[in-house]
Sequence to fold (1037 residues):
Amino acid sequence: MDFFSGDPSSRRKVDLGGRSNKERDREKLLVEARLEREQRKLVRLHNQSAAQIQKCFRGRKVVAVARPAIRSEFCSQFGEFGEKADSTVFRSSSKYFPQLFFFFNEKDAGDCQRLVQACRLLQQSLRETGDVVALFTENDQIDGPLVIYRVKRLARICLQTLHVHRNSLKAELLQPVQAFNSLTNSATLLLDTVLTLTGDNFPWSEVVLKYLHEYKLFYLLRSIFLMVEPEEKPTKMTCIESAVLVFASRHVRSLRSDTSKLTKGSFSTDILSIPLVWKRFPIFKQECIKEKVWAHSVHQIAASLSELLSILPPDTCPGFPSSVCLLGNLLEIAAAAMRGPDCELKLASDFALVTRYLMERLPASFYKFVKALDEGYEDEMDVDGFGKVTMPEPELKEQLKYAEDYELLKTLVRVTCSSSATSTTEAPSSTEAAAVGAVCAFLYATFTVLPSNLVMTGLAYRAELVPQLWQYIKRCHLAHSWPSLELVGDASDSQVPADLLGWMLPLAVFCPVFSYLLTTIDNEEFYEQQRPLSLEDLVQLVTILKEALWQLLWVMSAKPPSIVSNQRLGQTLQNRMFSSKAIRDRVADVSASLLAALHDRNSRRQFSPPQHFHAREAVDENFFAQAEGENTRAQYLLRKAPFLVPFTDRVRIYTSQLTAARQHSTHQTPFPRLRVRIRRDRIIEDAFAQLNPLAEEALRGTIRVTFVNELGVEEAGVDGGGIFKDFMENITKAAFDIQYGLFKETSDHLLYPNPASNMVHDDHLHYFEFLGKILGKAMFEGILVDIPFATFFLSKLRNKHNFLHDLPSLDPELYRSLLFLKHYSGDLSQLGLFFVIENNEYGEQMEIELLKDGKDMPVTNKNKINYIHLVANHRLNTQIRQQSSYFLRGFQQLIKMEWINMFNEQELQILISGSQEGMDVNDLRSNVHYAGGYSETHPVIEMFWDVVKTLDMDLQQKFLKFVTGCSRGPLLGFKYLEPRFCIQRAAPEDASEETLDRLPTSATCMNLLKLPPYRSKETIQEKLLYAITAGAGFDLS
Fold:
């Protein structure tokens, strides 16, 4: 019996594919044959390549051997350097040029002299005959192809020689242009020869010029330009400048089209991308404008934007990227090139198109915001995706600031908006819309790249962009047609759709400039003179802004912007400027800022009904639900543009946020209810000592108060919330009283921090922090307090800066004086004003400089605007900065900024103090609960309400304070009073006269009025008035 031996070789091999051994051998044979065939083919290719290389090498070797012989033959026939030659050498039968071209080596000094002699001979012959064609004519015939070949080759080797010896020929190239008349200057002879062969009088000039352009004419000239920078500023045009300008002008004429395709090695790419070219050759700059070479270059680049970066020459050095140098050179010359009334719309449009495209692609180190974005990243972060960032040269960054040039901005606005100024009804044409879109995109990019102050100033005051661009926006709005715009040169999927870009780009530029302008416009200019827009136009503008914001923030289903994640900074910058997210966020920001500024003006003095600012009459429950969530569209809208939502709806959201915060504090705080003992005659000091040291969590918790009267006896009553309300009302009344010294009042009896509070209280700043906590606690608990703040101080609670138009809320007299200076037409220097301001507090006079050395700086017509705003800034911001800062620090411990940023200053005052219209008796009556046998139709109740209706506003407030502990009702009405107001019968119907002689009492913690069943209306009035005016604290409770 056979057993398994362990040897696998004896096992039979089975092909699972079902193929036989013969089939497998056939396939193997085919594969081997194919490989052998490919190997033979490769050998043949190697042999052919080797033969070609050997042939080329042998040819070059033969040529190298033949060159000295041909050179010797040339020298023997025409002289060592061709000095024996005459004008016949230009004829077709002459061997002069064939031999010269054969042996010529631009690195050989002798050959260069022979070439210079040939050029000299050409110039001498032309001066003698004056006929270019006659030089190349033989037997009255011209061999056209041969002549064309020779002149092309001659022009080419002249350029090559100049390029190779550019360093040694530097001095000659920088000679004044008159040196072209000299026949002894080698460099000018070479240049003049090329200029002659491409001149208008030469019949083959276009062919030669086209050939030279294909052979990198401007690339060679670029290298020469870079090498021959003059050591001193030239006063006359140099030979090299003149030559480059002539070549460029001829090249422009030869193309015969402003929209010709841009190619590699053109004037536009190779010369205009030379670093600081206008600084090197300032006269060249003026001539480029005069000959319209710059304008043609702009048109040419605009027609080929998508290929621009790929055909630019390599960077000359890391600090001078070619694309940035091109941008800088275009910007530096733009204002002068487009100056004048004859500037074409297409030139302004194409210039804006090209510069926007280049700005968008600036390296990261040129962005003004790189430092901010770079925080949190490692030092070795690859910013551009190509290694560490190379910081730009300061001179190049300065050159980019020509985008801020006032004349340039003025020209762009004037040219592009001129059509809108003449027509106010028709929708803009596609050409006009494209031009406006291009300029707006350029300005938008400028805002992003450069610090915006100078740009804003130029656009707002010099270019007067607001009224001119408004006409375009107004026409689109009235025609119900916003043109579609596309960013030429961009094909990114992240770009904004063309139909949206049509209205986003104009608003992205118009809104920030108008907002900037509003900070300096006084009320007389805004309302009386109606500058820069009429009040009627402002109403239309509000409509446009609110609809745009509603679309951006609510209708478009985009998530709220999130913080930049830890991605590469270069990727963030690369598509940042015109990405869909970036431009939508930008338009939302600037539109919301402008709408807020207009809403603020309207709140002080109406030019439009308040409800006109609302995007909708009311918001739905879905909006309310989102507003109470986190990171929702509703929250984003309320943060960006709260005035789109009606005030009552925002108050509802605000109260729900407060309720949620109070509930959270109740559940989360580890502190028990805090009890404090307060002497009524020392209410501020006792409260400061006991409450100011408390932590934020304790302040948010429940605080219960026990009052001690003037006799040192604790007042009756248990604090269930009512006594605390009374405490809050009394401490605010005492602490914010101007007699206490921490606050002062304006002529309208509105409160603001006392700038000299340090002279009243040593620890004044901590008292301001404490009062900030007190106000915050009152608002946190929903307690309304009667503290009428000045508008400019309420701005501080919202972390806002005050401007000139806020000054009337502090000092109307000073405001009028400053307006007098602003509009004064005489010589201000004669008024003897200096950049100082005088403070007179408590009899102590102090002089404060508004600027360094301001006491020696007179106010003149030139600097008066600066003086006016510095005075306003000092009064409104500087002198109360410390007090406001400490007050805000305490306030923010209880009230989040996001809660009150939904409201402007006037609305914030209502949140603090309630409406000034008085108590709504009908609202209170419709939201009352009756107990103890009373009902709506009970005779005592009917008499009671009749009495309440007859009370004046002061008595109504005292009545409210008596029954609820607070003199003002809830913001949204008595429907939201917690707990609900209740009137309880305090005695049986058949009570004795002695019993009915009692006064009404209350339980403020329960909003409860205990009312005996008085027999007459007169008795009710007598007893009620006595109870609410007695001022007996809680002894009546």
Notes: The first strand starts at residue 674 and ends at 679. Residues 21-78 form the longest helix (58 residues).
